[in-house]
Design brief:
The chain is mainly α. The protein contains 7 helices and no strands.
């Protein structure tokens, strides 16, 4: 709602209340306007704050259900468990990170047909530390800051 429309509506509301009070209730016009001002103020406040009188014609955003996004949303809880238990890291987090990495690499030009991280192109694109984290059975979950840096690197891949 634009301020000019809200002020116009508030003015119309004030005048309508004043005319109603003057004509039907026989209140002098000066006092009728004094009684109409609070109503106009409420109309102004309501229209400026609510924004309900303007229709929103923007389309709804498309839902995103990409496999990479679904896996990424479950990683935070898995990291907490995996920091304590290496088996959880290798059985839960590492496979999800691998699938996320493959999905990110498929989005790049030249690696659209990549099916796994065993492909030599994946090793060339990823840094040695990230590649070992994703593929080595004996890899350990790095400290949170380093893990965040590795995930940023993966996101940029």
């Amino acid at each position: 709602m634009t301020p000019s429309k809200a002020v116009t509506a508030a003015t119309v509301g004030t005048v309508a209340v004043a005319l109603f009070a003057n004509n039907l209730l026989a209140i002098p016009i000066e006092w009728a306007f004094v009684l109409g001002l609070p109503i106009g103020g409420l109309v102004l406040l309501g229209m400026l704050l609510a924004g309900a009188s303007d229709a929103n014609w923007e389309p709804e955003p498309a839902p995103t259900f990409a496999p990479a996004e679904l896996h990424a949303s479950t990683l935070a809880a898995r990291f907490a468990e995996a920091a304590e238990d290496h088996d959880r890291f290798t059985s839960r987090v590492q496979p999800r990170l691998r699938r996320l990495a493959v999905a990110r690499l498929r989005a790049r030009a030249g690696t659209e047909d990549l099916t796994s991280l065993d492909d030599p192109r994946a090793r060339r694109v990823l840094s040695p530390e990230l590649y070992l984290l994703l593929t080595d059975r004996h890899a350990r979950l790095p400290e949170p800051r380093r893990m965040a840096a590795l995930l940023d690197e993966l996101e940029g891949s």
